[in-house]
Design the sequence.
């Protein structure tokens, strides 16, 4: 379903989407109110809602919780000029449950590469075409506690969290449930452009009640503080005689991501061994897999988000299927498990 007040945008986006045999536009709406009526009164299944944020009436942001509820499990992809110009609104949309965002090109630029990117994002949100809901096999949750890994009983020296598509919503759920203190610095690598990171850090602080900032090179890692990877560099850990420090690295990692979860996990494990704890949340691709291998090899542990709660079960799936996860749980339950370990239970 396309929800955009611009008739031109709806027409052009429709043409782009219908270029792919994987997708069909089953509904269009010019306002959030019209979208809600259509979602509540139609029997047509909707897998993805493409939502503009700037519209007359309620607008996309205010209506997002109702759209998610009315769409009965559909993913929301925000396609809006605000995704580029108004980072705060976009990060808020992601925290409220939007799965992904994409800046809308300016007038006259709805062609070429944008259509390829749009279809790529859509495919990531619905990995397999679904012609009919009747033929869809419900996703099964991965086992809560895989038997091949155990959680170390040592203190937590650092908590490192990696996420991508759908991660902001998952992180909000995690931090709202985390009842600290855990006595360790918390590192977060979320795949986002650099312009979003200050707002993102502020939202993590609001959700957790903990101080949060965008990490800077040589910054001391303080317990119960959240350090967010900049959008253009990797956040890694450097151990010194007087504590742990941030080391920011430039350049693409082997994972192809910038920032990447892998070097964060790897350096945390090398610095702290079994006191390093990794969490891998929703996201496409395999970023975090190699870092998880290092984490486990050094005696640390990795917790993965379960399939049922993921917007995209890519990164956690890679870790879980490699046998590296000591648990696969929804974000809130991961937070409870972290607190239990921190308290020695």
Sequence:
């Amino acid at each position: 379903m396309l929800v955009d007040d611009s008739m031109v945008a709806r027409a052009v986006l429709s043409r782009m989407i219908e270029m792919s045999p994987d997708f069909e536009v089953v509904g269009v709406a010019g306002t959030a109110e019209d979208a809600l009526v259509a979602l509540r009164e139609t029997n047509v299944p909707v897998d993805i809602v493409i939502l503009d944020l700037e519209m007359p009436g309620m607008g996309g942001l205010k209506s997002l919780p109702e759209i998610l509820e009315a769409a009965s499990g559909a993913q929301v992809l925000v396609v809006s000029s605000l995704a580029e110009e108004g980072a705060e609104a976009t990060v808020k949309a992601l925290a409220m449950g939007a799965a992904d965002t994409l800046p809308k090109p300016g007038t006259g630029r709805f062609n070429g590469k944008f259509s390829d990117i749009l279809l790529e994002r859509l495919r990531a949100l619905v990995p397999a075409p679904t012609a009919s809901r009747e033929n869809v096999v419900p996703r099964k949750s991965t086992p809560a506690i895989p038997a091949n890994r155990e959680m170390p009983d040592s203190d937590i020296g650092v908590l490192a969290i990696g996420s991508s598509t759908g991660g902001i919503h998952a992180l909000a759920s995690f931090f709202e449930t985390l009842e600290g203190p855990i006595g360790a610095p918390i590192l977060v690598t979320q795949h986002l452009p650099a312009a979003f990171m200050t707002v993102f850090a502020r939202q993590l602080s609001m959700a957790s009640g903990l101080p949060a900032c965008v990490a800077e090179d040589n910054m001391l890692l303080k317990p119960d503080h959240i350090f967010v990877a900049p959008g253009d560099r990797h956040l890694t850990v450097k151990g010194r005689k007087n504590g742990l420090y941030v080391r920011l690295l430039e350049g693409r990692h082997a994972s192809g991501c910038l920032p990447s979860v892998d070097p964060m996990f790897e350096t945390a494990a090398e610095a702290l061994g079994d006191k390093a704890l990794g969490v891998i949340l929703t996201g496409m691709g395999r970023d975090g897999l190699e870092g998880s291998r290092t984490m486990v090899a050094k005696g640390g542990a990795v917790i993965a988000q379960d399939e049922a709660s993921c917007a995209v079960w890519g990164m956690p799936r890679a870790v879980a299927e490699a046998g590296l996860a000591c648990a696969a749980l929804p974000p809130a339950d991961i937070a409870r498990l972290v607190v239990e370990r921190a308290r020695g239970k």
